[in-house]
Amino acid sequence: MCYRTKLNAKISEIEKTFEATFVTPEDYVPHKEINAFDFPQTPVISDFSRDEILFYNWGLIPFWAKNKDIQKSTLNAKIETVTEKPAFRDSVENRCLVIANGYYEWQWLDEKGKNKQKFLITSAEDEVFAFAGIYSRWKPSANDQEIVSYSILTTEANELMGSIHNNKKRMPVMLRQQDHSAWLQGKPMAAFAFPYEARLQAQKV
Fold it and tell me: Which long-range contacts (CB under 8 A, 24 or more apart) does 80-84 make?
């Protein structure tokens, strides 16, 4: 799964990588570790505005939700079943790039996971990269401000991640840079499920 990410690259580096501009650069705060369960706002590029970098909340809230409680179970979405699950199926055509320069995963060192080794996973090719994301727009009531929120897609783990995330054997869908447009344009989900993979590297932290 993917619940801890890293994004501490410079604004100029992010903008150069994605050929896009932060709409509100003053809102960008570099973080060595971002906790999904804080439901933070993080930088994304959406399918309707590909030259702008916006801030969406992590934890997808479907349009029909009565409150935000669902967020704790929508931080990730399995790419194999995302079109079937009620929380996600209305958002599968709403594509976004979730910007990061690393994520963290824990390897179980014993059968029950009481002892764990933390790893930082990064791209072997790009300093800054993007996860495949889907998003939703939600308003608690007509008079409230709209909240745009996202989920990161996950897939079966490759060999490297299978050895690290050895209890669930999942990994986030890290997009190859040349596939950013295909994702945003709505290429079928199945094309991004494993064995699709980007080159990863891991280090103990």
Answer: 80/155, 80/156, 80/193, 82/134, 82/153, 82/189, 83/189
